[in-house]
Amino acid sequence: PQVFVSITYILFVVVYFQCVCQCVDTIMGLLKLAHTKSVPGADDFLPVFIYVLIMANPPYLLSTIQVMVQS
Question: What pTM was computed for the model?
Answer without folding.
Answer: 0.74
